Amino acid sequence: MGKTIFLENDKPAPLTFFGEGSFYRYSEAECKRDLIILKPYEKLEAAISLAKDFSGSTLDINKISTKNSYSYIVKSAHNRYSATGVGCENYIAGLEKQGYKVLEDSINAKFPIPLDFLEKK
Predict the structure, then answer these.
(1) Distance CA 38, CA 76 (A)
(2) What is the distance between the alpha carbons of residues 94 and 42, in angstroms, rounded to a whole number?
(3) Could you give the residue ranges of the DSSP H alpha helices within 2-44?
(4) Do 68 and 27 form a contact (C-beta atoms < 8 A)?
(5) 90 versus 14: which is more confidently predicted?
(6) Which long-range contacts (CB under 8 A, 24 or more apart) does 50-55 make?
(7) CA dihedral in degrees (72, 77, 78, 82; nearest 10)?
(8) Strand runs (DSSP E) across 22-68, as ranges?
C-alpha cells in the first residue's frame, strides 16, 4: 500500500496526482504468485516496478515545460496489515502457523522523470 507524488521543481506538481494504491487478491493462487517467501538467511534480488508508466495519473503532458524539472516520490509500507488487507488473510495465517513472519519494511524514494519520457508520442 502506498502513494506516488509528482513533483515539479521539487514542489508538489499542481497538475498531477497519482492516488494511494493497492489491489485485491481474490484467490490463494494469486497470493502464492505475488507474495515472496524466503527461508532464514536467504537473500533474493528482484526487480520491482515503481510507476513504470503514469497511466491513471492526471499528469497533463500538454502543460509540461522544458524549463522545469520533474520527479516523483514513491512511499510504500509493507507489513502484515498491508499484506492481509488485500485478500491473503487465510494464506498468511497458514504460513504464520508454520513459523513464517511477514517482513515489515518500506520504500521512500525519489526518482527523476526525464523530459523525453514525458514528450507526446
Answers:
(1) 20
(2) 21
(3) 28-34
(4) no
(5) 90
(6) 50/4, 50/74, 50/107, 50/109, 50/111, 51/4, 51/18, 51/111, 54/18
(7) -110
(8) none
